[in-house]
Structures are given as C-alpha cells and as structure tokens.
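Propose amino acids for all 260 sites.
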C-alpha cells in the first residue's frame, strides 16, 4: 500500500512556473532565462533577439507570448521597435483579433467614397448578433494628422491598404486593448514619434544646454571706477613717454623769489 502511494506521488505532474510572473517569481525567471538563452542562439529569430545583447528582448517576448497565449517566435516576428517603442505589425493585429475567437466573425472593413473622400470602418459581429464598430478613418483625417505628408509615407501610393491597417489598429485599441496590450502599430509609431515631444525632455535639454554653454562667451569687462581712481596722476612736467620736460628760465624765475 505504501509503495502504491509513493508511485502515485511520483507520477503526479509538476506544475511549471508561469512566465507571466518572470519579474516576481524566481523560478519563472530562471525558466525564462534558459528559454531566452536557447532563443538568442537561434539564427531564425530576428536580429534584435540574437546573441547576448538580445537576451533581454527574448525575456520580454517570452512574457508577452505567455500573456497572449501564443508562440514566442510569433511575437518576435511581429514585434518591432520604432524609435525605442515596441509596436505590432498591422497584419499581426488583424490576425490576433481574428484568431482570438472573441467575436463570431473575423474583422471586416466597410468602405465609403473613393480617392480624397475614401473612408474605412473596421467592424465585427459578436455571438449575440450585435455589430461592433471601430472609429471611422478618412483620408481627410489622414491629411489633417499629417500621415500623408510624412517622408516615405505609403498613404499616397497605397491609401486603401494603409486605411485598412489604421482602422484595424484603432478598432483593436478601442474594443480589445488587452489583446494588443495597448501597443501602437508600426505605422502609427513611426508617424506619431516623428512629432512626439515630451515636455520634461525638452526642459531637461534646455537646462543641459544652458549648463554646457555657461561662460562659453568671453566678455570684455568694463573698467571699474576704482581702477580708474588708482591710476596715478602724471606730473605736469612729465610727458606721455615719462620724460621730464625742461622748464624754461622764465618759469623758474616766476616760481622763485630773489632773496636779495
């Protein structure tokens, strides 16, 4: 009987630590580190995740994959860093919404107008038959926000594709932010960060510039009044070159009285 109990205990599976808590659970952290080492040694993962410098990125990708219940490689292939900000590819945002089974239908796109009046709305239908829509994206909005005028913008040549991507990312951030973890799409990150300014950063830069430029300009100080007072007066019989001028006999005679 004792042997049977021991066998049952040995047969019980050991629960692996959840990678959702790698920053608070030591066992989960060690497990994630071993997995990150294996992934960083692969040449299939993107370059940002390769080698020793990519270990930290692999750790973050593992946590995100665990929270999204998807493959770490899937996250790595679709997570981009734009100006230091992580962002999803627009295709992956659409795929996440479609594969989540949160809605009865896949993400659909409703178009209105064409050319300068083109507009697009992303929508789905839930299991109760209710239609859930995202914000309407228009070409007028794209121009007003400066998306069209950005350098290298695809809005001029691929407006229908870009308006789909923007409608999808807006839908995801509004209706299922937990699914995309509140991240922007790569196109949004590139367009927004180009004009993104943090007030604190500007203040820090100004203060730094003041410190760096302090006393960098040499000014010619004005002579001080006290310095002028210290200048000795030149005797009348001394010229500018410091030579004593010979007094005339008349001057000497005028200055002395004849004792006789």
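Proposal:
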């Amino acid at each position: 009987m004792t042997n049977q109990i021991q066998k049952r205990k040995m047969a019980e599976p050991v629960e692996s630590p959840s990678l959702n808590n790698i920053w608070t659970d030591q066992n989960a952290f060690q497990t994630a580190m071993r997995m990150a080492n294996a992934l960083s040694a692969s040449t299939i993962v993107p370059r940002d995740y390769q080698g020793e410098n990519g270990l930290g990125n692999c750790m973050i990708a593992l946590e995100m994959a665990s929270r999204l219940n998807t493959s770490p490689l899937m996250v790595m292939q679709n997570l981009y860093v734009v100006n230091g900000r992580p962002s999803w590819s627009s295709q992956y945002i659409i795929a996440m919404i479609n594969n989540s089974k949160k809605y009865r239908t896949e993400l659909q796109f409703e178009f209105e107008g064409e050319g300068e009046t083109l507009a697009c709305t992303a929508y789905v239908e839930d299991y109760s038959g209710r239609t859930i829509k995202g914000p309407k994206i228009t070409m007028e909005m794209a121009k007003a926000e400066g998306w069209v005028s950005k350098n290298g913008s695809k809005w001029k040549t691929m407006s229908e594709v870009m308006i789909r991507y923007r409608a999808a990312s807006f839908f995801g951030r509004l209706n299922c932010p937990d699914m995309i973890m509140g991240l922007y799409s790569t196109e949004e990150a590139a367009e927004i960060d180009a004009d993104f300014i943090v007030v604190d950063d500007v203040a820090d830069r100004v203060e730094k510039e003041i410190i760096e430029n302090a006393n960098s300009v040499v000014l010619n100080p004005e002579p001080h009044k006290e310095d002028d007072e210290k200048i000795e007066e030149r005797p009348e019989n001394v010229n500018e070159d410091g030579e004593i001028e010979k007094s005339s006999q008349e001057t000497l005679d005028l200055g002395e009285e004849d004792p006789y």
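The first helix runs from residue 2 to 11. The radius of gyration is 39 Å.
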